[in-house]
Design a protein that fits this description.
It is a single chain. The chain is of the alpha/beta class. It is built from 14 helices and eleven strands. The protein has a four-stranded mixed sheet with strand order 1-11-5-2.
Length: 329
């Protein structure tokens, strides 16, 4: 198609493709990647034991550096979320609408839990706000409340948490796999882990109430006050998707037995229980393996045959393992 300018000269021929409708499918794909909130873009399905062995056991047996997490079902209401954020009401001691969760807040939070801090110090040693990793690892395994998310170097451990010693399964189970892209996002140094947690910063928004709607300017003042202390961030949009770090420093018996590592999600704003996953997926290869409920009884039998002490009743209680061994003596 040719056009002329105002002087009558011919302009370069323009291909008709330049006037076609934009590729909305491609645009939709890009938008989906930006707005993903449950890692559904990388969901895979396993329908046979041989597929499980090929995709999950084989890489592990070959020594590939992959980390695993098991969930008893795939549910949008059960996101990959640190345990401390599952009941957000415990994070608000006043009527404010937003809180900044950082190392100082965490230390204060645990200090208010009766004799919990005293218990830790009598077993492990003095808790230090500048060296919080060991304390948070202890809290995740023995209190069940921390900003850390459990993963394991072992697919058997993840499978145990997903199967939970059941013999019947009404829903498919789920296993996350996580593979590192950049070693700067991984550490086996407790000093580095302490530094990451010292710099930890998450904005947690209380669920919107009628009061927020009726008094929007008061709510904005709450947000502004907290935001000014959040690593110099100007708005929650500067903290819209978590960065991810993986900590491989075992500090307690359960963590060693479960071959545990921790995923730390940092520098984001949490509204509700969901968050955007793009930055995590930029840092790690994360896949969701949806495993058919039909093969779960066979997987459970395989687990007990190959690793009997990875039964769920044992994997969370080392004393039961010892008692079981004593019975066989």
């Amino acid at each position: 198609m040719k056009f002329q300018n105002k002087f009558g000269a011919s302009l370069p021929e323009t291909p008709l493709s330049a006037f076609r409708t934009p590729n909305f499918a491609k645009f939709g794909e890009i938008l989906e990647k930006e707005l993903d909130f449950d890692f559904h873009l990388d969901k895979k399905r396993i329908t046979s034991v041989s597929e499980f062995e090929e995709n999950l056991l084989k890489p592990y047996l070959q020594g590939e550096r992959i980390f695993y997490r098991g969930e008893r079902k795939d549910d949008i209401t059960r996101p990959l979320l640190p345990s401390i954020f599952r009941k957000k009401e415990f994070l608000f001691s006043s009527a404010n609408r937003v809180n900044l969760v950082n190392a100082d807040f965490l230390y204060s939070y645990y200090s208010k839990l009766g004799d919990y801090l005293k218990l830790y110090e009598s077993i492990v040693g003095k808790a230090d706000v500048n060296k919080m990793y060991s304390f948070l690892a202890f809290s995740q395994h023995y209190l069940g409340i921390s900003p850390l998310i459990d993963f394991s170097k072992s697919p058997y451990s993840a499978l145990s948490f997903a199967l939970k010693d059941r013999e019947e399964y009404k829903e498919d189970i789920l296993i996350y796999t996580l593979e590192i892209k950049d070693d700067s996002d991984y550490t086996n140094s407790i000093e580095t882990a302490d530094r990451w947690i010292k710099d930890y910063s998450v904005l947690v928004f209380r669920d919107i109430t009628r009061l927020d709607i009726e008094s929007p300017f008061e709510a904005l003042e709450d947000y502004k006050t907290i935001l000014e202390n959040a690593k110099g961030k100007k708005s929650p949009f500067d903290m819209n998707t978590p960065s991810a770090k993986l900590i491989d420093v075992p500090t307690n018996d359960l963590m060693r037995y479960q071959q545990g590592v921790f995923l730390l999600l940092d520098d984001f704003s949490l509204v509700g229980k969901q968050y955007l996953t793009k930055k995590i997926r930029d840092d790690f290869n994360v896949k969701k393996w949806l495993i058919s409920k039909d093969i779960c009884p066979e997987l459970y039998k395989m687990l007990l045959d190959e690793n009997p002490y990875y039964s769920y009743k044992y994997i969370t209680n080392l004393n039961l393992i010892a008692q079981s061994i004593k019975k066989d003596i």
